[in-house]
Design goal:
By secondary structure, the protein is α/β, with parallel strands linked by helices. The protein is globular, with a radius of gyration of 18 Å. Strand 4, helix 2 and strand 5 form a beta-alpha-beta unit. It has a single domain (3-231), classed as Spore Coat Polysaccharide Biosynthesis Protein SpsA, Chain A, CATH 3.90.550.10. It is built from 8 helices and 11 strands. The protein has a 7-stranded mixed β-sheet, with helices on both faces. A two-stranded antiparallel ribbon has the order 2-3. A two-stranded antiparallel sheet has the order 8-9. Helix 5 packs across helix 7. The mean pLDDT is 93. It comes from Micrococcoides hystricis. Catalyzes the formation of 4-diphosphocytidyl-2-C-methyl-D-erythritol from CTP and 2-C-methyl-D-erythritol 4-phosphate (MEP). Keywords: Isoprene biosynthesis, Nucleotidyltransferase, Transferase. The record marks 155, 215 as: Positions MEP for the nucleophilic attack.
Length: 240
């Protein structure tokens, strides 16, 4: 299969409080975007589309730098929109004709191991409409209303979904067309492309995610990512 990778790095990062796009925030001596790109097997894809904010020449330059450093990878840089859906649509517009499948990954999950991408690609090749990385829910989950617990939800069939997520191009394009039929409120409730496929009646499978694939949203997430990165980069003692 010809598979493209879309990396969504167009988020504002308002909740981080750095006054800059999230992907440009410092992490481990570089930036969130640089840490993300360094861990992705870029040459495993027929094309990589990096989606950055329109007002961030620094992030666009990062994309061009990685293109120079990885001449065997076809890396394209484009700009995002005001919403995630618009950013993904902009990225899809850059996908080359004849592409069979796409993986979509949030740059805000910079420590995601390469194995997650391989698992999604493998499952997608087995003819699924969509594939998401996921982890079992370990916390007790309760439904509340007006700060009052209504019930405890059975977590045995619940998972926490991450990225990368993979889709056949045909299924994703059909699902994106379905988005135009939704009311503004319904469209706003769509939080990822997998949910869009669900609403369009497509089949979405799961594969194992990784605890390292945490999403950086708050300052606490960034601090945790720094700690994890320090551990990943520290030399490990060999076993006799």
């Amino acid at each position: 299969m010809r598979t493209s990778l879309l990396i969504v790095a167009a988020g504002s990062g308002t909740r981080l409080g750095y006054g800059m796009p999230k992907a440009a925030v410092p992490l481990g001596g570089s930036t969130i975007l640089e840490q993300c790109l360094a861990r992705i097997p870029l040459t495993a894809f027929s094309q990589v589309v990096l989606i950055v904010p329109a007002d961030s020449p620094e992030l666009a330059e990062t994309g061009r730098y990685f293109a120079e450093q990885n001449p065997d990878a076809d890396i394209v840089v484009t700009t995002g929109g005001k919403t995630r859906a618009q950013s993904v649509a902009n990225g899809m517009a850059k996908v080359t004709e004849g592409t069979d499948a796409v993986l979509i990954h949030d740059a805000a999950r910079p420590l995601t191991p390469a194995g997650c991408f391989e698992r999604v690609k493998t499952a997608l090749a087995a003819s699924a409409d969509g594939v998401v990385t996921a982890l079992p829910v370990v916390d007790t989950i309760k439904e509340v209303a007006a700060d009052t617990v209504k019930r405890t939800v059975d977590r045995s069939n619940l998972v926490a979904v991450q990225t990368p997520q993979g889709f056949s191009v045909a299924a994703l394009q059909e699902a994106q067309q379905h988005l135009t039929t939704l009311s503004p409120v319904e469209a706003e409730s769509i939080t990822d492309e997998a949910m869009l496929l669900e609403r369009a009646g497509k089949i979405v499978k799961t594969v194992s995610g990784s605890a390292l694939a945490l999403k950086i949203t708050t300052a606490a997430d960034l601090h945790l990512a720094e700690l994890l990165l320090t551990d990943l980069n520290s030399p490990k003692e060999s076993t006799p």
